[in-house]
Design goal:
The protein is mostly helical. The chain has 5 helices and no strands. Keywords: DNA-binding.
Length: 90
Amino acid sequence: MKQDATSQAQKFVVRFPCDMRGRIAEVAALNHRSMNAEIVARLQHSLANWSTLEPTTADAIPVGREEQVLLQRFRLLSPARQRALLGLLD
């Protein structure tokens, strides 16, 4: 981040599971980033690729359409993730 962006950035405290901090530090080093830059980059990527089918509220899926929404979501998964999900259901 540039100095301007840093001075205008909002601070937010996050509690990580025990082993996650170390994993983030390792990945950040591999990507030649600070831990903060790594976390921000991953959040930006995640939000930019957020599916438009993701429900935004608990009642975002009308009753009776659950199966259709699940099928749409399933079709968006990579083949490997589809196989993994099917494996969990067996």
